[in-house]
C-alpha cells in the first residue's frame, strides 16, 4: 500500500485527519503513523497511543550526530543526502523502543525539539527522507506521515519518500494559497496530489470550491466541521473516527488508490 503524506497550514486539521484515517485503515490493515512534526506533541494523544520510548533520531544517535554527518557531507562537496541506514527494512523490523502499537496502528516519531538553540531542522528532514525511502511496506501495510505546518518539508525532500500527498484545506485564503504552492511542488516531484476540505459548512465549502477551481485545483473530498472532534480535542481525549467514517472510507477506496496510480 502507499505511503501518504498529509500536509496543510497550521491548525488546518492534519493530525486529526491522520488519526481518523489511521483508525479507519487499521480496521483491516496494519498502519504505521510517522510523526514528522518536530514541534507538536498531540498526535499520540489523538491516536490514544503512548509515544514511543525514543524517537527515530535517538535511535540513530541523536540530532547532533546526524547534523555532523550532514555538515561533513556538505563540506566535502556532497549533498544533504547522507546514509543513516545500512539498507531497506520493513515495519516489523523497527525496534519496539521506536514504535508504539495500539492494535494494528503504530506510532513512530522522527524527532522532537528538545533544547533551546539546538540548531536547524535539516537533520530532521534528512532523517525523514532517508527513513521513508528505506522503509518498504507490504500490500497490507500503510504508512501515513503527519507533517508540520506549511511546505518547508517539501523543500527538504521528505516528499521523495512518499507516493501521494493529501493536503488539508480549512476555510481560509492562506490555505488556498498554500494549496496552490503545494500542488506545484508535488507536481515537480512527480507525486499524486489531492485536496481535502476540512471544517467546512455548505457556505464555506462552495466558496473554497470556487477559489480552488479558479486555480485549477480539484477537491477530492470534504470533511465537515464536527462537534465530536472539537470536543475530544478540547478535553484532550483520544479521537474516534465514528462520525466521519463513511467519508474516510470513500477517501481510502476512491482517492488514495487512484491518486497513487495517477502518480
Ligand atoms: N473536522 C473537524 N471538525 C471540528 N474541529 C476540527 C476538525 N478537524 C480539526 N479540528 C480542530 O482543529 C484544531 C486543529 O487540529 P489539528 O491539531 O489536527 O491541526 P494540525 O493541522 O495538525 O495543527 P498543527 O499545524 O498545529 O500541527 C483542533 O482543535 C481540532 O479539534
Ligand atoms: Mg498537527
UniProtKB/TrEMBL annotation:
Single biological process term from Gene Ontology: negative regulation of cell division
Domain CobQ/CobB/MinD/ParA nucleotide binding: 6-238
Coiled coil location: none
GO MF, any single term: ATP hydrolysis activity
InterPro entries linked: CobQ/CobB/MinD/ParA_Nub-bd_dom (IPR002586), CooC (IPR014433), P-loop_NTPase (IPR027417), ParA/MinD_ATPase (IPR050625)
GO cellular component, one term: cytoplasmic side of plasma membrane
PANTHER family documented for this protein: AAA+ ATPASE DOMAIN-CONTAINING PROTEIN (PTHR43384:SF3), SEPTUM SITE-DETERMINING PROTEIN MIND HOMOLOG, CHLOROPLASTIC-RELATED (PTHR43384)
Protein name in the entry: CobQ/CobB/MinD/ParA nucleotide binding domain-containing protein
Source species: Syntrophaceticus schinkii
Lineage: Bacteria, Bacillati, Bacillota, Clostridia, Thermoanaerobacterales
Amino acid at each position: 500500500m502507499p505511503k501518504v503524506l498529509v500536509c496543510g497550514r497550521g491548525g488546518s486539521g492534519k493530525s486529526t485527519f491522520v488519526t481518523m484515517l489511521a483508525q479507519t485503515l487499521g480496521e483491516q490493515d496494519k498502519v504505521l503513523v510517522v510523526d514528522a512534526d518536530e514541534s507538536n506533541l498531540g498526535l499520540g494523544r489523538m491516536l490514544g497511543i503512548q509515544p514511543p520510548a525514543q524517537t527515530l533520531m535517538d535511535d540513530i544517535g541523536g540530532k547532533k550526530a546526524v547534523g555532523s554527518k550532514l555538515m561533513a557531507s556538505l563540506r566535502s562537496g556532497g549533498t544533504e543526502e547522507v546514509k543513516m541506514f545500512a539498507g531497506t527494512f520493513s515495519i516489523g523490523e523497527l525496534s519496539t523502543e521506536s514504535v508504539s502499537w495500539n492494535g494494528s496502528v503504530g506510532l513512530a516519531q522522527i524527532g522532537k525539539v528538545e533544547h533551546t538553540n539546538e540548531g536547524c531542522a535539516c537533520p530532521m528532514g534528512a532523517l525523514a527522507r532517508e527513513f521513508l525511502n528505506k522503509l518498504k511496506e507490504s500490500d497490507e501495510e500503510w504508512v501515513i506521515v503527519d507533517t508540520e505546518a506549511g511546505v518547508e518539508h517539501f523543500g527538504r525532500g521528505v516528499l521523495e519518500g512518499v507516493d501521494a500527498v493529501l493536503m488539508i484545506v480549512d476555510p481560509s485564503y492562506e490555505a488556498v494559497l498554500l494549496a496552490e504552492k503545494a500542488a506545484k511542488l508535488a507536481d515537480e516531484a512527480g507525486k499524486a496530489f489531492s485536496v481535502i476540505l476540512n471544517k467546512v459548512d455548505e457556505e464555506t465549502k462552495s466558496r473554497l470550491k470556487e477559489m480552488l477551481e479558479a486555480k485549477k485545483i480539484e477537491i477530492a473530498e470534504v470533511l465537515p466541521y464536527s462537534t465530536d472532534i472539537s470536543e475530544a480535542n478540547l478535553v484532550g481525549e483520544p479521537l474516534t473516527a465514528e462520525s466521519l467514517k463513511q467519508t474516510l472510507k470513500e477517501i481510502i477506496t476512491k482517492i488514495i488508490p487512484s491518486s497513487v496510480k495517477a502518480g
